[in-house]
From TrEMBL:
<feature type="binding site">
    <location>
        <position position="218"/>
    </location>
    <ligand>
        <name>NAD(+)</name>
    </ligand>
</feature>
<feature type="binding site">
    <location>
        <position position="74"/>
    </location>
    <ligand>
        <name>substrate</name>
    </ligand>
</feature>
<dbReference type="InterPro" id="IPR007886">
    <property type="entry name" value="AlaDH/PNT_N"/>
</dbReference>
<feature type="binding site">
    <location>
        <position position="201"/>
    </location>
    <ligand>
        <name>NAD(+)</name>
    </ligand>
</feature>
<dbReference type="GO" id="GO:0000166">
    <property type="term" value="F:nucleotide binding"/>
</dbReference>
<comment type="pathway">
    <text>Amino-acid degradation; L-alanine degradation via dehydrogenase pathway; NH(3) and pyruvate from L-alanine: step 1/1.</text>
</comment>
<dbReference type="Pfam" id="PF01262">
    <property type="entry name" value="AlaDh_PNT_C"/>
</dbReference>
<comment type="function">
    <text>Catalyzes the reversible reductive amination of pyruvate to L-alanine.</text>
</comment>
<feature type="domain" description="Alanine dehydrogenase/pyridine nucleotide transhydrogenase N-terminal">
    <location>
        <begin position="4"/>
        <end position="135"/>
    </location>
</feature>
<keyword id="KW-0520">NAD</keyword>
<feature type="active site" description="Proton donor/acceptor">
    <location>
        <position position="94"/>
    </location>
</feature>
<feature type="binding site">
    <location>
        <position position="15"/>
    </location>
    <ligand>
        <name>substrate</name>
    </ligand>
</feature>
<keyword id="KW-0547">Nucleotide-binding</keyword>
<protein>
    <recommendedName>
        <fullName>Alanine dehydrogenase</fullName>
        <ecNumber>1.4.1.1</ecNumber>
    </recommendedName>
</protein>
<dbReference type="Pfam" id="PF05222">
    <property type="entry name" value="AlaDh_PNT_N"/>
</dbReference>
<feature type="binding site">
    <location>
        <begin position="265"/>
        <end position="268"/>
    </location>
    <ligand>
        <name>NAD(+)</name>
    </ligand>
</feature>
<feature type="binding site">
    <location>
        <position position="132"/>
    </location>
    <ligand>
        <name>NAD(+)</name>
    </ligand>
</feature>
């Protein structure tokens, strides 16, 4: 199979969809991999490293897009819609929050497979997990940075010092991203509480961290009270394929402390804070009701060396399956991969995405 790897175009998106090691694995299996010149440089991978791995460096953007299977990291941006074809596209799509992209994919006849809806029988998301781990850790680091008064925050140190209070950090959602955000905040010395609707998950977290991370059953009343007292609130709610629910309402935001920081990891799916809107690494925050809102839509793009390797580690087995068998046979052999199909034949094939876009 002919596989294309374009460069990413989102603001400060340094990731690339395939490492040289992944390229080597595919070419050793008889596939042809064409990588756009310079696509891996921000992640630390030179064109020469891809060539040494058996890849072919191309200089034409359209050529990188026009292979049998196109691999990306982030969803196509509007200026990339012109490159969409009736080939296969495997990437993060987040279509519930991107109706124009869905329409462009349908019009182009693209077979669009989303990393974020590939789902194992235990309901885990193997291709979203590594980026959720990274985004969770970054969220606490960015929260700590923006809590400084010089960054517009309350002037609170996450761990405080003896004789002063620690920062109060509230996590909305106890999944992969929420857990990693909590662990990082705990490591910085903060007072950490996770809210989740799943009592079994809260029990699991309580045992795993020996009670050092507080757990609360999520409901609007308890969450509102916690948000009003928090210094940092991190939202990491996820419903695979669907728009994120707005669990932190505008009314809650109005009660928050002046200079509190709100980090919305769920922004790719529309955000779980009312009033959230996508921001960029160049301009990551905005103020709303006297709080600092951080809603960068490609947080792992800030650490491309780590993120690219983590992503390829997860995606490569699925890429190889598609390349070796073709989409139909690969999907028939792997129900988890089959759930990644969002659009094919000019139609939305994922019921949750279809409902979100209706």
């Amino acid at each position: 199979m002919r596989i294309g790897v374009p460069a990413e175009t989102k603001n400060h998106e340094g990731r690339v969809a395939l490492t040289p090691a992944g390229t080597h694995a595919l070419t050793e299996s008889g596939h042809e991999v064409r990588i756009l010149a310079g696509a891996g440089e921000s992640a630390g991978f030179s064109d020469a490293s891809y060539t040494e791995a058996g890849g072919i460096i191309v200089t034409d953007v359209a050529e990188a897009w026009s292979q049998d299977l196109t691999l990306k990291v982030k969803e196509p941006t509007p200026d990339e819609y012109r490159y969409l074809t009736d080939n296969m596209l495997f990437t993060y799509l987040h279509l519930a929050a991107a109706k124009p992209l869905a329409e462009a994919l349908i019009e182009a006849g693209t077979t669009a497979i989303a990393y974020e809806t590939v789902q194992l029988p235990d309901r885990s998301l193997p291709l979203l997990t590594p980026m959720s781990e990274i985004a969770g850790r970054i969220s606490s680091q960015e929260g700590a940075f923006h809590l400084k008064s010089t960054s517009g925050g309350r002037g609170i140190l996450m761990g405080g010092v003896p004789g002063t209070p620690r920062a109060s950090v509230v996590l909305v959602g106890g999944g992969v991203a929420g857990e990693h955000a909590a662990v990082t905040a705990l490591g910085l010395g903060a007072d950490v509480t996770i809210f989740d609707v799943s009592l079994p998950r809260l029990r699991q977290l309580d045992v795993a961290y020996n009670g050092r991370i507080k757990t609360r059953a999520s409901n609007p009343y308890s969450l509102a009270a916690a948000v009003a007292e928090a210094d940092l609130v991190i939202g990491s709610v996820l419903i695979p394929g669907a728009a994120a629910p707005k669990l932190v309402t505008d009314e809650m935001l109005r009660t928050a402390k002046k200079g509190a920081v709100f980090v919305d990891i769920a922004i790719d799916q529309g955000g779980c804070f009312e009033g959230s809107r996508p921001t960029t690494h160049d301009d990551p925050t905005f103020r709303l009701h006297d709080v600092v809102m951080y809603c960068v839509a490609n947080m792992p793009g800030a650490v491309p060396a780590t993120a690219t390797e983590a992503l390829t580690n997860a995606t490569l087995p699925y890429i190889r399956r598609i390349a070796d068998l073709g989409w139909d046979a690969a999907a028939a052999a792997d129900p988890a991969l089959a759930q990644g199909l969002n659009i094919a034949g000019g139609e939305i094939r994922n019921d949750i995405v279809a409902k979100a876009l209706a």
